[in-house]
Amino acid sequence: MDNAMPDPREPFSAAARTSDPDYEGVLRPVGPDWRLAVNMDGTRYLLQQRGFAEGCEIWVAPPGPPPRSLSKLHERFGSKVRGLARACKGLPDNPAEAAPDFHARRAEMIGRFHANDYRRHDYGRVISRRGSLRLVVDPTGAEYRLQWIPSGKLLAGPCDDWKSICITPKASEVRAYVRERVYDASDTSGLAKTEVEAFADELVAELPEHAKDGQWPDLPQRPA
User: Fold this and answer.
1) Where would I find the H helices in the chain?
2) What pLDDT, in 10s, does the model give residues 132-186?
3) Are 126 and 217 in contact (CB under 8 A)?
4) Angle at 47 between CA 44 and CA 53, to 5 degrees
5) For residue range 215-224, what is the model confidence (pLDDT) as tens digits?
6) CA–CA separation, 136 vs 189, rounded Å?
């Protein structure tokens, strides 16, 4: 059986749960029926007890918020869970320092989700932008997304709430939407209709008709 630890450069599994028997945030066993772990955000220690639900093994923390430090863990459970002090020997008071490889893999997973989130202000496949409108290509490379953001949010600073108002695999349909719907919706900051039509033409002028035929900036693989 291969017991090798996961490569810390690989992202953490998005399907993992803290209650899983093989949860990778586990630090130490505490006797046969307890274990000590860190939560996924690295902000709390989790003291968990073994249990079973519908025949499956699960690990559950006692009621109440988990402790934010090792000292608080001892204060709350030291007299209740036999062997806890011995199991905690050598661990840092701050849970964020207890499992650096685990936290690095978790951060990598979150970073990959963010990089594939087309709503974010820093999304890597923004093709063009004008004011509160922008055009992006989705992570699959198969669809164009015309997006809009309220001017108030835009002026307030970077915002991760760009809304997709036209989703299509074809550039011509993006052009038609801008020419027909954007002008009619009066979302053009005072532009004349001819200016809106020119903008629609410019928006897709150098794009392939089908998004899937384009060469777009690379994105890190999104966790399954």
Assistant:
1) 70-77, 84-87, 100-115, 151-156, 171-177, 193-204
2) 889 999 999 999 999 999 888 888 888 899 999 999 999 999 999 988 887 544 4
3) no
4) 120
5) 999 999 888 7
6) 21
